[in-house]
Write a structure and sequence with these properties.
about 375 residues; alpha/beta; 5-stranded parallel sheet; 14 helices; 9 strands; about 10% strand
């Protein structure tokens, strides 16, 4: 919508993961190095965690793109809200096997034979599991058992498990001890700092073909980092709306006031009207207002020390920013829960369709 106004070739702040816009921050570069180390090691598990919107999927897609044409065969598993055996079936499907109505024993034999054939051809097999925090302990155990497949002293399968921070907590449970011993490396992707936030924004604008428009002043970068908390997806949300605001206002130079206006819009969109207060609460509040009115204090005559006033203003601004960040986090969690519900619904519908398509009497002896 605004690309032509700014002279851009594409949208720089789209929310969908796009390897073309991958930004190698210190933390992302470290995580990528761990994954590449895992491929070279070809054994055990590599665990990468990060906040919602930290860029984990973009990192994975960047890695997968870099492996095209290599000797690495990749199975990518993104649906993880499944039972242990269904997870195993999804692993088979990720490598191209027929998994419908196949007994677990036969599936394991087929999977091992496939991994062995790839190894004897000089290839490596890599399983990538996204949204790993949704895996049940039994599903994690099934994945651990797959790491037992070996050809001599060589493991047949390398696995990457990528998920949200709660996956780190899951791995610390007592029943995860055997799995933890198979983890070769683990790292966490946190928020970008202020300087990386600016470089991230400038990087994406350059990738989208920017030749100086739009421009942000230093205060705008400060405000974007504060409002977004340094989370890449939130930065994208803020900046996309910011560019739309500039387009509508016919301005290419954006500042902190524009960021504040965008933050206010997000706050209004996330606002949920409070439920009507109970009569007792209304009476209590009214009593408090009356008590304040009875105080013999003329607020208009109150004078504050300039330094104190500045300090109070900064504290209020910080509290406001934290409130906006918390509202955005709640909104993201709600969207994630809705997405998970959709995945579960689709899985259930698939089972119903498969059951309906099954010939009658097939299960009878």
């Amino acid at each position: 919508m605004y690309e032509q106004f700014y002279g851009l070739a594409s949208k720089p702040f789209q929310l969908n993961p796009d390897p073309a816009f991958y930004f190698g921050s210190k933390q992302h570069s470290r995580a990528k190095a761990y994954l590449e180390y895992g491929i070279s090691r070809n054994e055990g598990f590599i665990v990468v965690t990060g906040e919602i919107g930290a860029g984990k999927t973009t990192l994975l897609r960047t890695l997968i793109d870099s492996l095209h044409g290599s000797n690495v065969t990749i199975g990518n598993l993104v649906t993880t809200q499944l039972g242990a055996e269904d997870t195993l079936r999804m692993v088979g499907a990720a490598f191209g096997f027929k998994v419908k109505d196949v007994p677990k024993s036969e599936l394991l034999i087929t999977l091992e034979a496939f991994l062995l054939s790839q190894t004897t051809q000089g290839k490596k097999c890599l399983l990538i599991v996204d949204e790993a925090q949704n895996l049940s302990p039994k599903a994690v155990e099934e994945l651990r058992m797959l790491s037992n497949f070996q050809f001599g002293n060589q493991a047949l399968l390398q696995s990457f498990l990528v998920g949200q921070p709660e996956f780190r907590e899951i791995l610390q449970r007592p029943e995860m001890e055997q799995f933890r011993q198979r983890v070769a490396a683990s790292c966490h992707i946190g928020p970008l700092d202020r300087e990386e936030t600016q470089r991230y924004i400038e990087h994406r604008l350059k990738k989208a073909g920017s030749k100086g428009k739009p421009s942000f002043d230093a205060a705008a970068f400060d405000a974007i980092h504060r409002v977004s908390g340094g989370i890449p997806r939130r930065i994208n949300s803020v900046c996309d709306r910011l560019l739309l605001l500039g387009f509508l206002a016919n301005k290419t130079a954006l500042n902190a006031d524009d960021v504040a206006e965008v933050a206010k819009e997000f706050e209004q969109e996330a606002y949920v009207p409070p439920k009507p207060a109970a009569p007792a609460a209304v009476a209590l509040a009214a009593g408090g207002v009356q008590a304040a009115a009875d105080l013999d204090v003329d607020l208009t005559t109150l004078e504050l020390d300039p330094e104190l006033a500045h300090s109070l203003q900064q504290q209020l601004a910080q509290l406001s920013a934290e409130q906006k960040l918390d509202q955005m986090q709640r909104l993201e969690r709600s969207l994630l829960r809705l997405e998970r519900l959709h995945v579960q619904t689709l899985a259930l519908l698939k089972k119903l369709v498969d059951a309906a398509a099954k010939p009658r009497g097939e299960d009878k002896p």
